UniProtKB/TrEMBL annotation:
Keywords: Membrane, Transmembrane, Transmembrane helix. The keyword Membrane applies. This is Disulfide bond formation protein B. It is found in: Membrane. The chain crosses the membrane at residues 7-28, 40-59, 66-84, 104-127, 139-161.
Amino acid sequence: MNNKKITIFNILGLLGITVVLLMGSILQLSLNELPCPLCLLQRLGFVMVMFGFMLNVVYGTEQRHYGIILIGALFGAATSLRQISLHVIPGTPGYGSAIFGMHYYTWAFVIFGMTISGVALLLMLWNNDCKTKEHQMTTFGKGICIIAIITVLINVISTFLECGPYECPADPISYWFSDLFK
């Protein structure tokens, strides 16, 4: 597989994970559903995956960047699987609204699993021609990187507004910042 195709896959991977993280923030604000600590850890897993993809987009494809993606995806899959296990008992309500029949943490597990599978496939197709000394980031790649960075900043700010400098509550009902003015 040539370097241009791999670069496109990395840009699309970065875009896909950015959209997932951005949708989590949009749903948080529009439905007023505050993420629990496990949800925030899953978002951290998505950020780690985004960072690995972004390294490939900015600096060129390298196996160690895929390692970062895999570590982030494994971390995120473990936290989402933990949350799924908390809500698998019949009669136990799910946390948050369901989207197309599945909750955020279930979708996160599926997406992390797809990420692990996709990166494994890219690594199986790896050859020494994949790494080039003359990597040039495309304008599209730069744009996606900027959107990804903004998305991470939105999540960092919203998490601070929710939890403040304290440990996040297990079942949050309001933003820490808005509670300061009550």
